[in-house]
Amino acid sequence: MSDVQSAAGLLPTLPNLSATFDRVVYPARQRGLALSLGVGGRVVSTLLAPTAPLPSSGSVRELRRRFDALLEQDLANVEAGHYPRELLYQMPILPYLVRLPEALTDIPRFLWRSYRGNYADVPGRGGGDRYPDYYLRTFHWQTDGWLSSRSARLYDPGVELLFGGTADVMRRMAIPPVTAMAARAGRPLRILDIGCGTGRFLSQLGRALPDAQLYGLDLSKHYLGEARRHFAAAQDVSFVVENAESLPFAAGYFDVVTSVFMFHELPKPVRRRVVREARRVLAPGGRLVICDSAQLSDSAVVEDVLLAFPKSYHEPFYRGYLSDDLAQIMRDCGLHVLDSRPHLVSKVVVGEKRRAGRTRRAVQ
Ligand SMILES: C[S@@+](CC[C@H](N)C(=O)[O-])C[C@H]1O[C@@H](n2cnc3c(N)ncnc32)[C@H](O)[C@@H]1O
Fold this sequence. Notes:
binds S-adenosylmethionine, alpha/beta
């Protein structure tokens, strides 16, 4: 436990004092993370794409504004009771630092793979039809793609490096539409997170809704192995290795389906197949909550930053994703869109599977 976590832990019974503490300490901590990790992330991006132009001054200004707004929204969500304040400090900095030597020794292989454009360098080939072609790639140029325990171990610190310590914060923006629904339902919800990876979102959601029945689905058994380590034995959570295009659940089984940072890695027709499957397994009145990269429909103002991402990192479907609005995909697949809004370089879109005869309702 870090010093900040210990200090924060002394204050839970004094709401005013803890809110004041959080309003001072939390933004300072996130700014420190953004500065230190931001430098590391910049170095990696520059090594991968040395000739890529720097972000425009307009984009930098907008990203600063969005960064402040993201932290403000995080604090407001805690104050509104959507999730416990411990989540503000839950990023496991020390365990991530412990993985640094392994990550550093991997950098030469990672760079060499990117310079050669060798995106097919993954161990899962030969797995029959278990994995679709689009999946068998070294996304981000990461060693082994999604298909090894080492990749799963290094993924979370790598993503925090890329996002300057805001990855978990952006993931948390998908929690309020779920907790608002739980409050209205007045009973534990059954929730499925598709493409759950190492479970960073699911474990935060579990702390916000300790009675929920959680399911995590991912095509990588290695990432699910890592996910299992994040959960307390008391948590009601099940993991399934499967393709999100054909969910192994009965129609109407879930109150909520979530997905975080997966859709930008799917080809266009697959995005629709996955949303249709999510709709099928939702009960009437259930919600699909997607958190993923911002898109041009909401974030044209930082277009140069969004377009730079696939120049450094192997993201073959990202350019197409940028103009394939998630809210429109939900509508095309028969969902009613309740909300769609950007958070820094991400966005959260909320769709509802309408009950027959239901009229319009606000998201929270
Ligand atoms: C960028 S990671 C996001 C992981 C996690 N949700 C997070 O917040 O970091 C994408 C994840 O989607 C999974 N994935 C990609 N295509 C999939 C598919 N068709 N079915 C199930 N999982 C898939 C990958 O295995 C990987 O764990």
